[in-house]
Amino acid sequence: MGMKLTKIPPKGMEMASTCSIDRVLLVLEFILNNLFRNSYVHYYVGDAIKDMKFLKTFLTCARKWSLVHLYLQSDNVVKRVSLPSFLSCIEDTFHKYEDIHSLSHDEMARVFCKIEKEIISLKQEIIQIYFALATLASNRSFQSNSCMTDNELLEFIDLILQNLADLTNDDMNWKITNKWSIYAALSAQVQDLEAKLTFLKSFIPFAKMRGTADFPALLLAHFELVALTAARLSYMCSFWDDHEEIENPEFFYRSTCSFKLLSIRAVDFHVYEIYKEVLAASNSSASLHRAVMDERILNNFNDSLIGRLWELLCCSSSFVDSMKDQMRILYAGLRFLRSILREHHEMMDEQNEKIGALLGEAGIIIFAPTLSRVIEGEVSFSRSIQVLRFRGMLANTNIHIKHFKDQISGSRTIESLLNSSHSLRAPEVSQTSSRMLSKGKMPIDHEVMVGLDDEAEKVIEPLIKHFEDQLSVSSTIQSLPNSSHSLRAPEVSQTSSRMLSKGKMRDHEVMVGLDDEAEKVIERLIWGSEQVEIVPIVGMAGLGKTTLAKKVYNDTSVKCHFHIRLWCTVSQEFNKKSLLTQILCSDGKHSRMDDDLNEDDLLEKLRQRLLKNRYLVVFDDVWDIKVWNELRISFPDDKNQSRIIFTSRSSNVASQVQYGGEPHYLHPLSEKQSFELLQKKVFGEEEECPQALHGLGMEIAEKCWGLPLALVVVAGVLATIEHDILVWKKFAESFTSTMVSGTDQWKKSLELSYEHLSYHLKACLLYFAAFREDEKIGAEKLMRLWIAEGFVEIIEGKRSEDTAEEYLMDLIGRNLVMVSKSRSIGGVKTCYIHDLIFEFCKGKAKEKKFLQVLRGYDELSTFNEPPNLPRLSICSSGEDFIKSRLFCPHLGTLLFFEVTSVYDKFKLRDISFLFCIYKHLNVLNLEGINLRLKWLPAEVESLLRLRYLALRALEMQFIPPSIAKLSHLETFSLNSHQMVSLPDSIWNMKKLRHVHVTHLVIGLSSNDNGVENLSTLPNLDTLSCLRLYKEGENLLRRIPNVRRLKISDEQTGNGVLNMSRLDCLESLTWWGNYSSGSWEHVEPPFPMNLKKLCLYGLGLPCSKMSLIERLPNLEVLKLRVQSMEGQKWELMEGGFPKLRVLTLDCVKVAEWMEADPDSGDYFPCLQQLKLHDISNLKMMPACLESISTLEEIKVSSCRDGVKSLVRKIEAEQKDYGNENLKIIIID
Fold first, then answer.
1. What mean pLDDT is predicted for residues 561-580?
2. Residue 1133 belongs to a domain with what CATH number?
3. Which of 221, 552, 743, 997 lies 20 to 30 Å from 78, alpha-carbon distance?
4. Is the backbone of residue 980 left (phi > 0), alpha (psi -120 to 50) or beta?
């Protein structure tokens, strides 16, 4: 079908000289933005846009040379080309594609194929023209003659940078995976070109700003040559995804060689002196007083210098090593200048002039051709005149930056003193009300409800200072910033500002009477109408709506009353499909839904699950009635007392819902009470708020949501600023929740808890600050990190993991850490800390110099490493991490968390720099970045202290033998979608304790002759997921003390794998591929100490189930797809003596019974029974009707006969007095 174009400009509109190409690009981009993402045409359009951009770059360049006649050579034939004619031909060729937006999708696809053929037909000639132009430019560069002006060159460079960015998109990369090593080399060269062009793009405006009115022709000609070379190489590489080129090895060889031979220096020897003169020039008066533009230009040039200096610091050469200390000082100095440039102040023009001079000095050093040769590996100096000269220049520049830094620090100190001497103090505080607040008591009838304490006053001081700074920027309301963050106090307590910004306050204050509130809600859930009813819990943010709902949701009586309980968090912006998926998965049965299911499928799936069941569904944080209107069709009313809970900040939502009952309100202070409190704290008990400020005061009070402590802190600020309507109006407009710090009382309480911890527990608690807020942290991962960090005391004869688990349980027992999910065999699976504790830990970790947390590019880019920084946690995009050019060589721990989706498009293609810089690391966790690597770089061997290494590289397949040099490595984790091969050198890593690779093969050395000569990993504790072949049992002998093991057994035809020798094994997941005949004459293959066993595809005959039933310590058994063969499973008397959890999933057993029905010696400890897709089951053990320990039976995707058997067990259990047995049946 056709597409109606409404936003394409008319053909007559004035456009650039590349008119046809520009217009076609505009049409293509419009089509792209109006297509469904999964449309097959979408991919054609994307490729066409990329190709047209490369063509546009060529035309932009070639038109500057249009008066030149070129001689092109091909196959030893030289031909003369008229450039104007060639360019006109291109325009005419693509002019006919300007109206493709009106075509159908199929017609578009055919046109895109034609466009691709047209572009390929031009390929060779354009490459030859680029080469000829570069040759001409090379000759002209020595004659001080360029074809482009500086502005035209900047436009050309911008286009090339766009092309280079397109070269690294994912679609193209996938097309050359079979040439991975060549791609990696070319990709590195592309990044080098990007850096050089970015430098030129920043240098030209910087030079003009510094007083270079007429840009030196020789320098401009050289820059033009660099840009032409880059354009030619980028155009060549744009055909990486061309099938013919992929299959032609000569192309890759030629491309690689072209980069090496033609990639010239941004500043070469013959222009270096001119370059120095430009940078040494002083500002002309005409260039001053352009603060905003100057700041941007200075920032860009400084970023280029930092990037280049960072490359130098990563180099290993005698020349660089001899000056590395001075280079680090310069690096820190440039990052300091970067932070200064981010600030806005009165002396900005004067400071920018000084910064410009300092950057000019640094640029002369950093882009010296000699240093470029060092980076390129062409030259190495040890003791020479160059070393002495550069060392002197470095030292002088560092002295000048230090002098400037001292001036800045001095002026700030004076300014701070002046401000503090004029600051108004908050009035004295009622000690009575302060004590009441600290105890969480809010006397409703008291005229002044709460008061300021000393800690609250400390919070107010920086708020006052910051607000005064805001007032000094402009005296008019019109100049106020529009940003909601324009009034921010950097020094304000991070804990309280974060908590109030989320609408949360201290639990022991706002949760008073929660038990009574819960009883009222539970009564409404369990009793009352048979009809489905919605129970809305309504109140302002921070009053405990979610906490109350969770308390009710998890109440024992509620659990027993409802067959199904589901939970979802809605929030302000919701996606219907995501919300449905969240609801369906909230029972823990499914971790995800099939992506192919659309919204209607999910609505029906939810309705079927709830149908004929008494259900409780919680909608947490509902902002709009729209969510209920869109989902209510899935909530049947079977007149069985089903209930729905809404938590909402809006009473309107509660009043509009169908089936809605009377809202259960949690009350904050009323507006009147809020304003009264604000008024008393600002003006005192005797004075009233002036009428002129009354409306603004009400507005400010309303923004505090009736939260008393927020009102007190805000009142403390208002009490110290001028009582003028313009000042108050500015405050009211700029005031946001992030200004307010309201958790100082909590800080005191947490400080007391913290000080009562042992040294080891303090470190373990503070380590939570390294993770993301609200993150559910895997307990095992956390404890391994603690061990790698050295927090866990080493006790002879005791596993460090056991000690670490005791630490975790201690922190949980102190209510500092909370359990999110428990493991089936006991212990904690995931845990987290409350937001308040998180903020406390983050602040304390920074105060103690225990850990630095950086969030986002602003913090990353201006951070300077303090001496001996032990740990750094980064939460940002991978791209920002690379751009920031962090250099912290003494760092002990680097943890990276991706702030965006884990499937973010940015892929890090080279991590060698990490291994070159951070050689002192004990812990390296890069699971937050998707590394685009097939091989782990051999440079990893330089991390000799490393104890913990975690990576996410979905395409990685090979680990180098040099990894064995990491003799201290204890944990190695790799998330890859490929089969990963570990080298046989792994057997030399005697300290290795935990290996987690999604699909793993380990090499066996050919030197191991006989069992007695086998190299072992005596300390290996966990290993997953290992694929075993014919040498499987020999490999298992090498890990004699493993406790947790996941294996995929591929040794078909070699008999059943025997693991009985693994005496320490407690948890085993075993994927097999056996037939029932494989188990004939088999000795027990399972170790006796197993506590958890999960089986897939083993084909174990029911007659051999006694091999498992005899296991004396087994607590959890999961028999999954094809793990059992046979129709009749007869339980052995006295079997499963400790089994607590039994799961039968897709097994074919029909008759499941006891050997002796009269015996009671079956399942003495069973608590949970889970049945999934057991289609043939017709008989279940009678003992299940009388087991006193049974707590829950969950049935899913089973036939009615199985459900009837379960209902019979339920009835018999009730007769035996077990009223608490929970039966969950899911269709």
1. 84
2. 3.80.10
3. 221
4. beta
Is the per-residue pLDDT at 997 higher than 70? yes
* CA nearest neighbour of 574 among 682, 685, 653, 504: 653
CB atoms within 10 A of CB 765: 26
- 1021-1045: burial string, b at 16+ Cβ within 10 Å, e else: bbbbbbbbeeebeebbebbbbbbbb
Question: Dihedrals φ, ψ of 873, to 5°?
Answer: -115, 125
Q: Are residues 1162 and 1199 in the same domain?
A: yes
Residues 6+ apart with CB under 8 A from 101: 3, 5, 8, 27, 30, 31
Lowest mean pLDDT among 132-141, 244-253, 536-545, 1141-1150: 244-253
Q: 624: which 2 tokens?
A: 């709009």
Question: Which helix (DSSP H) or strand (DSSP E) does residue 924 occupy?
Answer: strand 923-930
- Cα dist. 1193→563, 1105, 1147, 1168 in Å? 11, 22, 17, 6
DSSP state of 459: H
User: At CA 106, angle to CA 105 and CA 108, rounded to 5?
Assistant: 65
Side-by-side strand order, sheet with 615-622: 564-569, 615-622, 643-648, 533-539, 664-666
pLDDT, tens only, 12-52 = 433 334 578 888 888 888 887 776 655 667 777 888 888 88
Strands laid side by side in the 818-822 sheet: 777-778, 828-832, 818-822
pLDDT on residue 778: 93
- Residues 1074, 1126: one domain? yes
* pLDDT: which is higher, 916 or 432: 916
In a shared domain, residues 1028 and 1120:
yes
Q: What is the DSSP string of 29-44?
A: HHHHHTS-TT-HHHHH
Q: Which of 409, 431, 453 is where one domain is finished?
A: 409
89 cis-preceded (ω within 30 degrees of 0): no
Question: Does 1109 lie in the same domain as 1166?
Answer: yes
Distance CA 238, CA 167 (A): 6
**Minimum mean pLDDT range among 439-443, 631-635, 751-755, 1161-1165:** 439-443
Range with the poorest average pLDDT among 364-378, 570-584, 1015-1029: 364-378
326 with 392: CB under 8 angstroms? no
Question: Does a structural domain hold residue 993?
Answer: no
In the chain, the number of structural domains is 4
- Distance CA(933)–CA(954), nearest Å, equals 8
pLDDT mean over 346-364: 83
Question: Do 530 and 572 fall into the same domain?
Answer: yes
Residue 40 lies in a domain: no
Evaluate whether residue 208 is within a structural domain: no
- Residue 689: HSE in the Cβ half-sphere, 13 Å Cα cutoff: 23
Q: Indicate whether 296 belongs to any domain.
A: yes
Does residue 1225 have a pLDDT over 70? yes
Nearest to 961 by CA among 979, 983, 981: 983
Cα–Cα distance between 34 and 27 in angstroms, integer? 11
CATH number, position 703: 1.10.10
Of 409, 432, 456, which one is at a domain's C-terminal end?
409
Expressed as residue numbers, the domain containing 343 is 292-409
Give the list of residues 6+ apart from residue 382 with CB closer than 8 angstroms, or none: 318, 319, 322
Q: Are strands 615-622 and 777-778 parallel, antiparallel or unpaired?
A: unpaired
Place 1207 in a pLDDT band, splitting at 50, 70 and 90.
very high
Asked if 615 and 720 sit in the same domain, the reply is: no
696 and 620: one domain?
Answer: no
Decide if 70 contacts 91 (C-beta within 8 A).
Answer: no
Same domain, 751 and 852: yes
pLDDT for res 1082: 66
Task: Please report the pLDDT score of residue 667 as a whole number.
Answer: 64
pLDDT digits (tens, 9 = 90+) for 845-887: 998 999 999 888 888 888 877 777 899 998 887 778 888 888 8
Tell me the chain's radius of gyration from C-alpha atoms: 35
